[in-house]
Amino acid sequence: MSARQAKVSPSRPARVSAILALALIIGGTLNRISASLERSHRPAGFSRGMVQGALMPMAMPNLLFGKDIAIYSENNTGLTYKLGYTAGVNGCGALFFGFCFWRFSRWRRG
Predict the structure, then answer these.
(1) In this structure, is residue 71 part of a structural domain?
(2) Domains in the chain, number
(3) Strand partners, 76
(4) Phi-psi region of 14 (alpha: psi -120 to 50; beta: other; left: phi over 0)
(5) Nearest CA to 70 among 38, 39, 43?
(6) Domain assignment of residue 6, yes or no
(7) Which residues contact 41 (CB under 8 A, 6 or more apart)?
């Protein structure tokens, strides 16, 4: 028996369950982070823009279920916040899509 044959692949229901569990964890975490960020009365700067930008794509499930989440701070510093927000969105997208393409290529091979 080769090493490739000995490898056990998770079933589709297990994969779907894992993805749903991860989505619930991310959603709960996003709710807490969003609430804590909105409590601050200082204008949002570059670092807060990066955090909110990175969390923005993960807000979709909450928004679909009617939970309103702040994904952009109106009280911001202007250009620096927008640069951070853009960097956060792009960084999150690069990590997410990079991971997905890597996983899909591994699923096709195995």
Answers:
(1) yes
(2) 1
(3) 44
(4) alpha
(5) 38
(6) no
(7) 75
- What percentage of residues in the chain have a pLDDT greater than 70? 83
Residue 101 resides in a domain: yes
Residues spanned by the domain of 33: 11-109
Q: Which amino acid is it at 22?
A: L
Position 24: which residue type? L
- Closest to 92 in 3D by CA, of 60, 64, 50: 50
The answer as to whether 3 is a domain residue is: no
Q: Where are the beta strands (DSSP E) in the chain?
A: none
Q: Exposed/middle/buried for 51, CB within 10 Å: 0-12, 13-18, 19+?
A: middle
- In this structure, what are the phi and psi dihedrals at residue 76, rounded to the nearest 5 degrees? -130, 175
Query: What letter does residue 90 receive in the DSSP assignment?
Result: H
pTM above 0.70, yes or no: no
pLDDT at position 97 is 80
